[in-house]
Amino acid sequence: MPAPRRVRFAADGVALVLELPEGSLPRVVHWGRDTGDLTDVDLTALGRVTSAPNAANGLDEPHRVAVLPEAWSGWTGTPGLAGHRLGRAWSPRFRPDQTASVVTTEGLGGSARVHATDVDAGLGLDLEIEMLPSGVVRLRAEVTNLEDAPYVVDGLHLALPVPGHADEVLDLAGRWAKERVPQRGPFRVGSHLREGRHGRTGADAVTVLLAGEAGFDFDRGEVWGLHVGFSGNHRSIAERVHTGERLLLGGELLLPGEVVLGGGESYVSPFVYASYGDGLDASAGRFHQLLRARESHPATPRPVVMNVWEAVYFDHELDTLRALADHAAEVGVERFVLDDGWFAGRRDDTAGLGDWSVSEAVWGGGRFGQLVEHVSALGMEFGLWFEPEMVSPDSDLAREHPEWMLQVPGRLPAPFRHQQVLDLTHDGAFRHVRDRMVALVREYGIRFVKWDHNRDLVDAGSTRTLRAGVHEQTLAAYRLMAEIRQACPELEIESCSSGGARVDLGILEHTDRVWASDCIDAHERQQIQRWTAQLLPPELVGSHVGAPEAHTTGRRLDLDFRAATALFGHFGIEWDLGAASQQERRELAAWIEFYKEHRELIHTGRVVRRSSEGGALWLHGAVAPDRTRALYSVTLLERPVTWPVARVRLAGLADDVVYRITPAGPALGEHTPDPKVLPAWWTPDGADLPGAVLSRVGVDVPALLPDHTALILVTRVDGTDDEAATERSGT
Ligand code: GLA
What we know:
Elements: E1 5-11, E2 14-20, E3 27-33, H1 40-49, E4 81-84, E5 95-96, E6 101-104, E7 110-118, E8 123-131, E9 137-145, E10 151-162, E11 168-175, E12 178-186, E13 190-196, E14 209-212, E15 222-228, E16 234-240, E17 246-253, E18 259-261, E19 266-268, E20 272-278, H2 280-292, E21 305-307, H3 309-312, H4 318-331, E22 335-338, H5 360-363, H6 367-377, E23 381-386, E24 390-391, H7 396-400, E25 420-421, H8 427-444, E26 448-451, H9 470-487, E27 492-495, E28 513-515, H10 522-532, E29 541-545, H11 559-566, E30 570-573, H12 582-604, E31 606-612, E32 617-623, E33 629-636, E34 647-648, E35 658-664, E36 687-690, H13 691-696, E37 699-700, E38 708-716, H14 722-729
Parallel strand pairs: 21-22, 21-30, 22-23, 23-26, 26-27, 27-28, 28-29, 29-30
Antiparallel strand pairs: 1-2, 2-3, 4-10, 5-7, 6-7, 7-8, 8-9, 9-19, 9-20, 10-17, 10-18, 11-12, 11-14, 13-16, 14-15, 15-20, 16-17, 24-25, 31-32, 32-33, 33-38, 34-37, 35-36, 35-38
The structure holds alpha-D-galactopyranose (GLA).
């Protein structure tokens, strides 16, 4: 065998070195910190110093594991492609048909595309391996059945190796109203397997599976993270095998017989994304960069939202909602969203899904149009809630087309929030929803759809194929979104699923923000948003100010804390402002003004996260890409053992730039904290110090009460901020 060709892609401090053997699939030699330029001689030597040794009582010819691992090479871990032709063709060996097509873009990554065939198994494979300018690695595979006899795909996983010092694994767990809770442990021998079988991404979704150096944190320790960009069933695995390899693998989880390829048919895997970083912030930052570089990334300032769900629930009434819109406009809201309960027989959550026409009983006599006009006249956009993939058994749609509900022969899936799933692979069902939605969007000039998805797809088969239906349904939902957006180019879509159960990069190809959780208790939201940020930048994460007493937890929290928490996302309100006092509305208006003033910084800045005082004090920050400005929040979530001396380091600043730090936020008006609990610098003039001091020594913070936040604004004194520079030099 000739020596394999090796290529290095590098972007933003990350390198991916690939080995492209002539007779087998590509293998990763190095994925991690950039090595700097490597000559062909270096690459050959690198290949030699990283090749597996020939162990006693082991493989005579050891092979480095491929991006799509195969058993022929002696690999005993999870296979890349699992499938068969009624028992035959069960262990593929793909050989590239021609040399890989490789494109390298200096400093901006590159890509390798490999077309391979297994003649004996009658299968073709197309592999795409890319390094994007953000340094994120993206992989995808397509398998094609080259014979007439059907080929069953049981699973397709793509894999990236991590080194032997990646000793700990961290991923996310959760449930309804408490999404994205981190869990962490040693990288043990065997598989740390996370399966999502909800037929949606899931409130307990892994989101990002990370392996890293022992003790890695937001600011330190190498970490390697993997994300499966898919909104249906999926699998993420951190696998350590007895021969020493450590891999992160990901792919779609296919139900039995869900994908059966006829002659000439193909299965395309979802994209698997991988982000390396020195510290969790660096890994998250790459995902943010990747998303922000998309053409479809929201380009306009993220409007302040009023969502009426927790204000009125199903109690729709024109006058109440008009009054709510008046209050909303008065405090500075820019987008008014009417939630569930506006259509057909939908007076509570037991009926009506699928019948997408304005309810005559509640909104007849032109009242719906009057609300829309009222909202527009107040200068706000109008948004509307839909749950397009669902159907209530108690609906005209289900009565007319019981066969359009996903089911297995002889029974419907167990009821879940009194609803079933509409099988969008039935052409008629697809067209029904698409056409109703497009018609309503056009008729009422709707600018925003909150696209909900409130049940699991379990026992979910199609009456059309008699097969498991999650795979096709997920693709059909993407198609539905794409077609609606094409027909209504002005429309923005929010991905909601019982709160935050559909947060992934697959859905974000078709949507403009996610609803992170049905829990808007700010104490809980601090955690939910902190970890949603491991994948998504704040401008994509809906974040609302709720009522003083949180509906999901009963916790009472003051307005400053609620608003300061919502600030670091796509800000909104979900609170009956009619029940709020005038004083509360005034304070809320001041927060909205503050959000508008700083949203550009928050929505383009680099996210930094830190904690101190044994995890009781959390720092969250947005640092402008040019590092001239930053906004930090410091939040006390629990009462620490030692107090009140507490210091935070303001991460992300440039060492040699002098900054002015000042207390920030409208809270400084009515709610100036007791001067006895303030550090000396906590004055309107603040203090001027170089970034090196602020980020290494840090600053003392006010002795906060639990569930309270202090905001710190940082602006560059010299250079760009001329006025401040002049002041400082005393001229
Ligand atoms: C889901 C959403 C909520 C709300 C309700 C309406 O639970 O997450 O925000 O829209 O549905 O039924």
